[in-house]
Amino acid sequence: MKLIATCKLGLEALVARELTALGSPPGIVADARIGFEGDDARLFAALLWLRCAERVFIEAGSFEARTFDELFEGVKDIPWSRYLSRDANIHVTGKSAKSALFSVSDCQSITKKAIVENLKRAYRTNTLPETGAEVIVEVGLLRDTATLALDCCGAGLARRGYRTYNVAAPLSETLGAAIALLSRYRQDLPLVDPMCGAGTMPIEAAMIARNQAPGLNRSFAAERYAFLDIAAMARERERARDAVVDAKLDIQGLDIDPRCIEVSKQHAKKAGVMLQWGVADVKDLPPRDGKGIIVCNPPYGERMLDRRAAGELYKEMRRAFDGRPGWSRHIFAGHPRFEREYGARADKRRKLSNGGMVCTLYQYNAPRFKEVP
Fold this sequence. Notes:
This protein is α/β, with parallel strands linked by helices. The chain has helices at 12-21, 40-49, 68-76, 104-123, 173-182, 200-209, 230-243, 258-271, 307-321, 338-342; strands at 2-7, 29-30, 33-37, 53-64, 89-97, 134-142, 145-151, 191-193, 251-255, 276-279, 292-296, 327-333, 348-354, 357-364. Strands 2-3-1-4-7-6-5 form a 7-stranded mixed sheet. Strands 10-9-8-11-12-14-13 form a 7-stranded mixed sheet, with helices on one face.
């Protein structure tokens, strides 16, 4: 099968690396999409193990479509009976970017009509009851190319199943995992998130250390698709359970808000990881020698605090973090003057999208940092 993994802009290389590790080397990598190929087992492995991807699709067909007629005929020519039974409950989603066909609702409607016409012909019937299992079909238009694909996730891959309570401005699980991976966290290093919010980054780091598949405790839309070998999913899920290791972790999540810590504890329990949690102000982070990793997602001055207050917070962070000179720092922020307010230039910067907002991961890897004048 032709498969597609989608991700947030800036995370394509990470997802490609994850696919390679799963034995599914990527093909085309571009526009927050990574193409790869595989059988049912490879598909289910991707659903279970991809930490940084947003969704996984089975590509049904792709063609140029600049008019609604071209879209209708192109969709109708795809052999939908390979994927859809006579009673399939067809749900069409859509998106469009940089294309002549920009009305997503119209594209969805035309796609549904074309699929129905195709299936009527294939099953030699005048009616389709749509009383069976739901199958999610996405019509995606990019630069006048239409790609028809079956959504194998249902809820996005960020929905691991452990985060049931929210706090202000939460970080998505996929971004949390990406930052942990980009920090080069490993089991033998201590890690602290001094502004942990809902606990996402510490929990994702713990799951990485335990070799715990992020999709282990949830279900997927693909498990309802009759054309797939569901027994293969059961085998992959069992392999994932067997792969979990019992790791001794030195991971700490701190936050000034007691409710955040209570929420984080509940999320960690649901995720099956045991971590250290505590109520503390970032300015009171105790000094510590040796090597370690600091990760954090401080307020940007948008939804939480104003820009001036956020700037003062960054200065306090710098003073506190300097008490751990051997620790690398990985700070995810959307403030346009972060480095100036923090007082040090990052060794590396990576632009990432966070809820439609362009943010930057500032990485400080050396024991000493270049001052900002």
